[in-house]
Amino acid sequence: MAMLEVSKLSISFGGLDAVKDFDIVVEKGELYGLIGPNGAGKTTIFNLLTGVYKPNNGTVKLDDKDITGAHTINVNKAGVARTFQNIRLFKKLSVLDNVKSALHNHFTYSTFDGIFRTPKFRRVEKEMDKEALKILKVFEMDDEAKTIADNLPYGKQRKLEIARAMATKPKLLLLDEPAAGMNPMETNELMDTIKFVRDEFNITILLIEHDMKLVAGICEKITVMNFGEILTQGETSEALNNPEVIKAYLGE
């Protein structure tokens, strides 16, 4: 059964089609790539999938549940987590607190408990610390739990962002250009991290990326977009060798 099934998804701005009749099926456990030149509509699709934008037409199903046009919070609660091209950490908070900030779907206490530091507040905070440290240990970052996020090197900030996304316990993880700004060594480490996350957490990953080495190295299938429409879809190696893809995206 598909984890993500999108049919005829469309949106326009000012009469111009940003995305038109977008279809995709991502199977459970798949590592899938979405590529295309700048302005092709890739991030717009992520915004449609996560409720930032409401589509003019089309449907989005997550694990056979219709989430079309749902509010961002409800999309996250349904099982979709996302990272961004520009890292969006709470840079002045610790590594631990960044992960804890994503545990709101699973740990709660009232405003009263928070203000007066009640026994429930202390119990829940202790449970959150334990859960956040468990996640950080998986990512080999538990020794840096007290480090301020802004003091981490760039590659580890990206890793922390992924760890924070995983704290929401998603079924589907959306990665928006995770290799942006990375050097070759950091990109290689990121490839290992993405594959590790898919296998360790048994989740499905859809990523946008311009680094073709990363795409070819980890994505089993890809969809290639151009001018808001699908250019081709299929097995990664076959799609990347499509003459239309080479012409439109690789510039050859």
Describe how the helices and strands are arranged.
Elements: E1 2-13, E2 16-27, E3 31-35, H1 42-49, E4 57-62, E5 65-66, H2 72-78, E6 80-82, H3 95-100, H4 111-116, H5 119-138, H6 154-166, E7 172-176, H7 184-201, E8 204-208, H8 212-218, E9 221-226, E10 229-235, H9 236-240, H10 243-250
Parallel strand pairs: 3-8, 3-9, 6-7, 7-8
Antiparallel strand pairs: 1-2, 1-4, 4-5, 9-10
Helix pairs in contact: 6-7
Describe the structure.
The protein has 252 residues and is α/β, with parallel strands linked by helices. It folds into 2 domains: 2-79 and 170-250, Rossmann fold (3-Layer(aba) Sandwich); 91-153, no CATH class. It has 10 helices and 10 strands. It has helices at residues 42-49, 72-78, 95-100, 111-116, 119-138, 154-166, 184-201, 212-218, 236-240, 243-250; strands at 2-13, 16-27, 31-35, 57-62, 65-66, 80-82, 172-176, 204-208, 221-226, 229-235. The chain has a 6-stranded mixed sheet with strand order 6-7-8-3-9-10, sandwiched between helices. The protein has a 4-stranded antiparallel sheet with strand order 2-1-4-5, covered by helices on one side. Strand 1 (2-13) and strand 2 form a beta hairpin. The mean pLDDT is 93.
